[in-house]
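At this stage, I wrote out one protein's amino acid sequence and its backbone structure tokens, and that material follows here:
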Amino acid sequence: MNTSSNPLSRQRLSRILLAVFLFALFMGAGPGLYLVNDYAAAGGTLLGMPALYAWAVGWCAVEAGIVLIAYLTMWKEPSA
């Protein structure tokens, strides 16, 4: 994805990444935990891990993926 040549696509991508990152931040440690809390209280597991732990790790992985995408596509010096 070559976003360095088009500033509008760069700006659009940055807004999308910001929105998804804030959503992941909100869902990982906020009210998103209430979605799996009943399942976790009953001793439920996801992928062999306790549900709350898997939930938090999953959203942290989403956040890390967003940082990786931003690094590979946007955090580059503009070429002269």
User: Anything to note?
Assistant: Residues 66 and 79 are 23 Å apart (CA to CA). Residues 7-29 form the longest helix (23 residues). The two ends are 19 Å apart (CA to CA).
